[in-house]
Amino acid sequence: MRTFRLVIACPDGVGIVAKVSNFLASHNGWITEASHHSDDQSGWFFMRHEIRADSLPFGIEAFREAFAPIAEEFSMVWRITDTAQKKRVVLMASRESHCLADLLHRWHSDELDCEIACVISNHDDLRSMVEWHGIPYYHVPVDPKDKEPAFAEVSRLVKQHEAEVVVLARYMQILPPDLCKEYAGQVINIHHSFLPSFVGAKPYHQASLRGVKLIGATCHYVTEELDAGPIIEQDVVRVSHSDSIEDMVRFGRDVEKMVLARGLRYHLEDRVLVHGNKTVVF
Amino acid sequence: MRTFRLVIACPDGVGIVAKVSNFLASHNGWITEASHHSDDQSGWFFMRHEIRADSLPFGIEAFREAFAPIAEEFSMVWRITDTAQKKRVVLMASRESHCLADLLHRWHSDELDCEIACVISNHDDLRSMVEWHGIPYYHVPVDPKDKEPAFAEVSRLVKQHEAEVVVLARYMQILPPDLCKEYAGQVINIHHSFLPSFVGAKPYHQASLRGVKLIGATCHYVTEELDAGPIIEQDVVRVSHSDSIEDMVRFGRDVEKMVLARGLRYHLEDRVLVHGNKTVVF
Amino acid sequence: MRTFRLVIACPDGVGIVAKVSNFLASHNGWITEASHHSDDQSGWFFMRHEIRADSLPFGIEAFREAFAPIAEEFSMVWRITDTAQKKRVVLMASRESHCLADLLHRWHSDELDCEIACVISNHDDLRSMVEWHGIPYYHVPVDPKDKEPAFAEVSRLVKQHEAEVVVLARYMQILPPDLCKEYAGQVINIHHSFLPSFVGAKPYHQASLRGVKLIGATCHYVTEELDAGPIIEQDVVRVSHSDSIEDMVRFGRDVEKMVLARGLRYHLEDRVLVHGNKTVVF
Amino acid sequence: MRTFRLVIACPDGVGIVAKVSNFLASHNGWITEASHHSDDQSGWFFMRHEIRADSLPFGIEAFREAFAPIAEEFSMVWRITDTAQKKRVVLMASRESHCLADLLHRWHSDELDCEIACVISNHDDLRSMVEWHGIPYYHVPVDPKDKEPAFAEVSRLVKQHEAEVVVLARYMQILPPDLCKEYAGQVINIHHSFLPSFVGAKPYHQASLRGVKLIGATCHYVTEELDAGPIIEQDVVRVSHSDSIEDMVRFGRDVEKMVLARGLRYHLEDRVLVHGNKTVVF
Q1: Of A153, B10, C79, C134, which has the fewest CB atoms closer than 10 Å, so is most exposed?
Q2: What residues are paired with A119 via a beta bridge?
Q3: Chain B contacts of D242, Cβ < 8 Å?
Q4: Residue C75 carries which DSSP code?
């Protein structure tokens, strides 16, 4: 069923819901899902509506025009999206395949509603798996002494493929600040620990050294500060003294792929609203 | 902060949210929380609003009158409650203290927003603990050969104490059908298994015999059919071959008390809407 | 690191551990993992040792001979396996790919220590995915009016491929009793509910009707009685009123594949001991 | 059933299990539970046996003498305890009652196998609750300008009551280094976050600022370095944007009390072996 998704953030106040729901009702809009959140600390209000496209008398452009005055009145940060227009996703990976294979399978079996424009990797290992899915694979090696040319090429490919979302599916390179800025709120990473614990490299080794009883994974938007962007989703799995670092890595892979898949899904369904360094996930 | 809670269920259709939010906005109502749910299968719509009482120009009676026409227009099943009027709760227990002690502590430390009118038990074991909290304790023994007089007395006490909620906190007796009917949607039970598995007595023994790897607890409304009422909340805990039935019972106690406390809280906050044999828990 | 796995079940008594560990120590056996369990109810004792193969002065056949007198003395049901001899696995599937794809990926990335002899399916849908992994695919359609020829062919293939383990990775057919008997303790199924709830078909519909707040999956050995065999592993995921049956099916897929992968891993590592209708999982 | 618990840590090697189980078997010791762990990284071996006291021909002192030569041979760090001698526990609290009430209830209902010698608090709020349980309550206020006299008094009380375990059940003061040293491995704290995240004060505020999707609690041994001692147990609970800091605090209380109760139980049952800054929890 084709729907429009109306996603709004604005300073809180009386009458916002009334105004928006009046607007929708006056055009006979059939709301299939509605979510609201008032944030006490920031004084902001967030809402998301999912509306059957066939219940409305107009398309998305006309919707935008008609709604603009209300948006202006309440100083809304807002967007409306159409499920008929699948988001274009670029996946980035290195050598480890678990997250990539998981996302490709979900896409292949119609669970992930998006177009996968291409896969970019700094290694050539996963080419065959990707190409079996009929998806272009770009091998862009990163020279540790001069990373700039590689990231220029990455940037070019992302643009060429008109990506709206970039997913770092265990891409073991740190994106340069300008790319982070340009695609703020559009680059999703999976970090293999329960952030803010164990920022940076080898988190399972850190976790093992500290003797923790749970290990986790965190899906977050990439910002210029390493592993510090807004968190979309997290989960943990229980470990014990009997688990080696290799066991932790193995358990970790399962949490990583589940958390990344959920986080990406929320993003694709326009369920994630970023405000400051926090997210509202409807 | 004092709020009114407006809880609505009605056949789904266009314009319900608009009508309700218009009504609230026209009276300057400050919505602190709003939840909606459209149930595809039944074609019903459910909503719950929490509104700051001091933002409205009238009290709860005037609200009821003013809102009645809208309720009628959309054939709403609805209620409005005032957090200033704490619900009166009667707790029932037998010999085991874990659920009762947990609820009493939550109430004593102001976590559970209700009045505990009294505790009724078919045993006298827990009297001292209850009375330490300043709550009346009634010992109503149940004669297995003739249970009627006991339940008549229970019924009398529940009425006398003007109970709006009855909580079976490991009360090991089956309530008679007429009591179940009279207090439909108001009697909350904790069953010590993951329903619908292991209905009836000794569920941990049943679970152990079946060799399950998780045991659970289910908080549900009591209906005439044993352990088959609408489910409010459930949870599980992991067990293994190394756990004896005694271990399961011990783990179970923790799940039972947590699940019952959450279920009761949802009920007290008017978050649970029953429709048929299912619940919406906002 | 190559290890031998010594797995023992016998009536409990004094001196078993001493006898076994003496035997191992007298041959300089380096134990890397040891697990014990005394079952009070049945009076049986279970143990599993993992021993470095290179620490022993003999191979697995000589081990068997040397250990036999001890096994006889304590009436042991026992086996010893060699990690150098990978178990041969036959996977069976229907149309749904999530469990099969997950297992194939784990095998492909060296996480599952086994040989996948072939995949048998009653549909031809998943052939290309399987063959990309270099694994033979057999399409054995099942005629609903006469299933016998199909299961004869299945049986023949399983034998031809010398399968030690058969995994029903969402194979939507019920195996005939004789096959269940012949491969008792070797056929692993994933049931898409938290058994013993919702035995049989369409468990998510049953779960939705009952309004449960958690859905689960159960990995178990197949026996003649449907969905009643010894449970190896279970897990659940939280659902709410806002989840449709389609959502439940989607969440369910993730639990199913995780639970099956864990259960199969336990089996391949000789961690599962069946006693009566229950398992010890070391 | 009275048991002895034999707990051993020593450098790993061949023949340890054989020697220990021979010793037990030669004295006809009936082992009810046995656990082993080889730690690859440190090269240490850990084991714990639970033995029926009535199966042995001698008492704990004779056991100690008889076992000493084996302990010496393998350079064991070891202890043997007798379940007939309950450990003496001193509980410390401040104003918040949830952990204290939970532990007291578990003790009162015979779930926690220990003697609670007394409760020490820097506030007088919880006196009545404690005294209802028949346990002495000491109010030792801490002067923020000069904490020494208070901790001298605490130290004196702990000694006077011959405490073997000190539990900081939300005691909001930092113990002085000399006390931490003197009672190394005997002081158990509950920290209200998933350590190592959010060390120090107000972890829920820190968690809310960071926008995490899970909050946790950590039970650990107290060392001189704040919140950095060996971790015994951890758990988490899911939160979302809709949860205020007050909600997090409330959810947190439930995790805290569960994690502390589990951690303390493991300690009382001699299941926790500390090695370096990590624990083995059998």
Answers
A1: C134
A2: A91, A137
A3: 33
A4: T
Looking at the DSSP assignment, which residues form a beta bridge with residue D281?
Answer: D272
Residues linked to residue C234 through DSSP beta bridges, in sequence order:
C218
Is the pLDDT score of D40 beyond 90? no
- From the list C102, C105, C132, the residue facing A132 with the nearest CB is C132
D111 touches chain B (CB under 8 A): yes
Assess D266–A contact: CB distance below 8 Å, yes or no.
no
Q: Could you please report the per-residue DSSP string of D186-236?
A: TEEEEESS-TTTT-SS-HHHHHHHHT-SEEEEEEEE--SSTT-SPEEEEEE
CA–CA dist A157, A180 (Å, integer): 15
Backbone phi and psi for residue A85, each to the nearest 5 degrees, phi listed first: -105, 95
Residue of D nearest to C36 (CA): D34
Look-up: residue for tokens 């609203």? A273
CB C89 within 8 A of CB C163: yes
CB atoms within 10 A of CB B68: 12
CA atoms within 13 A on the CB side of A7: 19
Give the residues of chain A that fall short of pLDDT 50. Answer: none
Chain D positions touching B102 (Cβ under 8 A) are 105
Q: What DSSP string runs through A45-99?
A: EEEEEEEEGGGSSS-HHHHHHHHHHHHHHTT-EEEEEETTSPEEEEEEE-S--HH
3 state SS of D103: helix
With cut-offs at 50, 70 and 90, classify the pLDDT of residue C144. very high
Find the range with the poorest average confidence among B31-35, B143-147, D113-117: B31-35
Number of C/D CB contacts below 8 angstroms equals 54
Structure tokens of A52?
Answer: 């059957």
User: Closest chain B residue to C196 measured between Cα atoms?
Assistant: B197
Residues 52-81 of chain A with CB under 8 A from chain B are: 55
Residue in C124, C125, C227, C247 annotated catalytic: C227
Q: What SS3 state is found at D158?
A: helix
Q: What's the rounded Cα separation, in Å, for the pair D82 and D50?
A: 10
**Does A36 sit within 8 Å of B18, measured CB to CB?**
no
Distance, CA of B114 to CA of B135 (rounded, Å): 13
The answer to whether the CB of D5 falls within 8 A of the CB of D73 is no
Please give the structure tokens belonging to residue A273.
């609203």
CA nearest to C180, candidates C170, C189, C191, C193: C189
- Identify whether D196 is preceded by a cis peptide bond (ω within 30 of 0): yes
AA identity, residue C46: F
- B29–chain A Cβ distance below 8 A for any pair: yes
pLDDT of residue C14: 86
Q: Give residue-wise pLDDT tens across range B141-190.
A: 999 999 999 999 999 999 999 999 999 999 999 999 999 999 999 999 99
Residues linked to residue C218 through DSSP beta bridges, in sequence order: C191, C234
For the beta sheet containing D77-82, the strands, ordered from the edge strand earlier in sequence to the opposite edge, are C77-82, C3-11, C44-52, C31-39, D31-39, D44-52, D3-11, D77-82
Catalytic-labelled residue, pool D143, D178, D227, D247:
D227
CA pair distance C128, B277, nearest whole angstrom: 45
Note the Cα C70 to chain centre separation in Å: 28
| Dist. CA A174–CA B95, nearest whole Å | 60
**CA C58 vs CA A253, C18, C68, C138: distances in Å:** 37, 21, 15, 40
How do residues C203-216 score in pLDDT, each as one tens digit?
Answer: 999 999 999 999 99
Q: Give how far B184 is from chain C: nearest CA, Å.
A: 17
Whether C160 and chain D come into contact, CB under 8 Å, resolves to no
| Higher pLDDT among residues B32 and B273, named by residue | B273
Q: How many CB pairs under 8 A join A and D?
A: 81
- Residue A109: DSSP 8-state: T
CA–CA distance, B37 with B10 (Å, rounded to integer): 11
